[in-house]
DNA sequence: CAGTTTTTTGACAATTTAAGGCAAAAATAC
DNA sequence: GTATTTTTGCCTTAAATTGTCAAAAAACTG
């Protein structure tokens, strides 16, 4: 249960890379990458996939980390977060079944 | 497990009001209200509370309906929605416990 | 069925929100 | 203490979402 940022930082360190190098490889500003790693900016899906490729990570795993960050972020400070997630789960199931009328 | 829009439409009909009247009472454009009821626009939190007051509904209930709509909407078409919600739940719990460093 | 009221739609303007980018500051390593 | 790396702040930009108005469509009413 790691945040997207933690994951990509771990991977970068593990490979002994500095931000500058990752920036060069991905064509993303190094300050921006720093912010991703510290969870101060949220990348687009395309960028998530870029990182998955760069670090040889399973795409699904990384996307789950990234999307769940977003959801959790939207609910931060919400007393009702728990209830909201349970209801959202039902709604997602319902939509998956019956489509979106 | 109703959508926010369904709820406020039900309530309006139940009271025999037309959009024009609700628009006057809330100072929201009637086209906008129509869109809320059809889930084509998402109101702000303030407006959700306005509707709670207008229709004498429990605020929490309405907010849960509204927020869960948002979450479910973000995850529509996401094959991984289920997994995402489970992870998000853990993250929310974690944040609630340890704050947001 | 014509006339009236209500609801919906569509295009556009306005707002809001979040991200990208640069340069300076801070931290870390050498 | 210098050099490198990382972080921060600010600002611009871009994207997404909403509100608004007018016209079209739909639903009532007599």
Characterization of this structure:
The structure is a homodimer of 101-residue chains. In chain A, helix 2 (19-26) packs across helix 3 and helix 4 (45-55) crosses helix 5. Chain A has helices at 4-14, 19-26, 30-37, 45-55, 59-75, 81-98. Chain A has 101 residues and is mainly α. The first copy, chain A, is built from 6 helices and no strands. The interface between A and B is medium-sized, with 33 and 33 residues. Chain A binds a DNA duplex (30 and 30 nucleotides) through residues 18-20, 28-32, 34-35, 38, 40-44.
Q: What is the CATH fold-level name of chain A?
A: 434 Repressor (Amino-terminal Domain)
- The tally of strands of chain A reads 0
- Percent helix of chain A, as a range, is over 70%
Oligomer: homodimer
Order of helices and strands of chain A: HHHHHH
| Main sheet overview of chain A | none
For the residues shown, what is the average pLDDT of chain A?
A: 93
Low-confidence stretches of chain A: none
N- and C-termini, Cα separation of chain A: 34 Å
Most extensive interface: pair and counts? A-B, 33 and 33 residues
